[in-house]
Amino acid sequence: MDDAARRRVGSIAHHVNPNNQDLANEGFSRSTYASADASTVSSYERVHGNVSRDAVKWTRASVRTDASDGATIELREVIYEKSPEGIARVTINRPEKRNAFTPRTIKEMRWCMDDARDDGSVGVIVLRGMGDLAFCSGGDQSARGEGGYVDAKAGGSEHTPRLNVLDLQMQIRRMPKPVIASVAGYAVGGGHILHMVCDLTIAADNAVFGQTGPKVGSFDAGYGSTHMARLIGQKKAREMWFLARFYNAIDALKMGLVNTVVPLAELETETAVWCREILRNSPTAIRLCKNALNAAEDGQAGIQDMGGSATLLFYQSAEGNEGRRAFLEGRRPDFSKFQRFP
Ligand SMILES: CC(C)(COP(=O)(O)OP(=O)(O)OC[C@H]1O[C@@H](n2cnc3c(N)ncnc32)[C@H](O)[C@@H]1OP(=O)(O)O)[C@@H](O)C(=O)NCCC(=O)NCCSC(=O)CCC(=O)c1ccccc1C(=O)O
């Protein structure tokens, strides 16, 4: 492809980054909408291409308690933001600890995720770490007591050792909207698992991935092992856990751990572009696809989640509402006008 053609494709196929020859040479550039012949523009490109690369307009968001006073909860270890275009962003804000999480961090992330789930204006959620050095370095080892993670600063139940990150994993997994991990620097230990349970991972070229558990006396025998094996295969998953090595971004891309790799300076923009593309698409189609992809791994729990989405759709149908109205009107429902599918 000559330079002119590369520029043409680059304007539409934004995953091609001509500035990063290393990535291009690896053959991992993506050209989502590009025609095979760069000189022609398909109708698909014309209609769906040209996604804005403008900076996202973020506003700090707050989370409220369920209590009737609706008081705002103080976020100490997480930053929560929203954009008018429908993106919510959760940032682990402990850069001095390479964004290691405490029980409090996880609690705050869960509050934000809950809010993002319930906010109908939010269509996609970004998870990231503050700064360029780390997405997340897993559980804060200084908050790990003899029996598990505790929050020494808090009282009451916070003294009970726990692994509440498992609840966050499930929350991301069952989130009816896509969650994108935007990874700069280290995504290791429990931080590596967090990016794996996200639906998509966009990695900066300085990203480093790995499981450290076997070196610090920890492991995740749940999604951290089984979902990993689905992503990268049994042999590689065993390698990651048994040897506890670190892998760079290109290795991670080759392994299928991440969706794309971009220069660090492009990470925020590229993440915004992926969000915008998702936001253009049918939220129901995306939700059901996520349900189905999860259900294939999650057994009955996955079917339960997908079943919930199906029921929600059914509630919006005339047939579903005939049942509701008939009950409220004290009459026998008349389902005769609804087609019986063959
Ligand atoms: C991430 C490093 C490789 C970065 O190295 P480097 O850039 O050289 O920085 P450092 O100087 O090491 O770190 C700077 C500063 O941060 C502190 N720090 C870093 N990570 C942690 C951490 N995880 N806990 C506490 N503190 C941390 C570090 O001490 C420095 O502090 P100073 O005061 O400035 O000295 C490197 O930092 C590193 O290897 N970090 C540790 C990675 C790790 O082992 N993480 C824990 C893995 S186990 C885990 O995450 C438990 C949870 C879990 O895995 C799990 C278990 C069961 C079910 C589910 C899960 C789950 O999903 O999480």
Q: What would you say this structure looks like, in words?
A:
42% of the residues lie in helices and 15% in strands. The protein is α/β, with parallel strands linked by helices and 342 residues long. It starts with a helix and ends in a 13-residue tail after the last helix. α4 runs parallel beside α5 (165-174). The strands form four sheets. A seven-stranded mixed β-sheet has the order 1-4-5-6-10-12-15, with helices on both faces. It has three domains: 3-48, no CATH class; 59-281, 2-enoyl-CoA Hydratase, Chain A, domain 1, CATH 3.90.226; 284-329, Lyase 2-enoyl-coa Hydratase, Chain  A, domain 2 (Orthogonal Bundle), CATH 1.10.12. It has 13 helices and 15 strands. Bound molecules: ligand LW2Y6JES. Residues 97-98, 100, 134, 137-142, 163, 165-166, 169, 186, 188-190, 193, 212-213, 216, 218, 220, 222, 224 line the site of ligand LW2Y6JES. It catalyses: 2-succinylbenzoyl-CoA + H(+) = 1,4-dihydroxy-2-naphthoyl-CoA + H2O. One of its GO terms (cellular component) is cytosol. It holds the Pfam family ECH_1.
